[in-house]
From TrEMBL:
The keyword Transferase does not apply. Belongs to the GcvH family. It comes from Pseudonocardia charpentierae. InterPro entries: 2-oxoA_DH_lipoyl-BS (IPR003016), Biotin_lipoyl (IPR000089), GCV_H (IPR002930), GCV_H/Fam206 (IPR033753), GCV_H_sub (IPR017453), Single_hybrid_motif (IPR011053). This is Glycine cleavage system H protein. NCBIfam families: gcvH, PRK01202.1. The glycine cleavage system catalyzes the degradation of glycine. The H protein shuttles the methylamine group of glycine from the P protein to the T protein. The gene is gcvH. The modification N6-lipoyllysine is found at residue 63.
Amino acid sequence: MTPEDLRYTEDHEWARVSADGVVRVGITDHAQQQLGDVVLVELPTIGDTVAVGDACGTVESTKSVSEIYPPVVGEVVGINEALADEPELVNQEPYGGGWMFELRPVDPAQLDALLDAAAYDRLTDED
């Protein structure tokens, strides 16, 4: 079930906006299923400025390595340090404990261009 309260990218990342405007980012359940067992997650550094379309980290699984893309332009203000020791959280809780990083968007209006849950479901139905 795709959570309704999130926004999604065509690259299979999700974005959750908090009350203070910070955006938490992770990969979708669909993405983690395609990857298989996640064994390593490399995240951006706090303070980095990230841009849409530019990889800012990687997820390595037993099957492949995939890049992580930010859903909006912004400054990284937090990372999920638990993933260093427990990368399997990405598989177990992709929308919870498996989140990857947080950023403060330069232009919050960019979030409006992301997919809602219904549009993301249509995208993944085509896979």
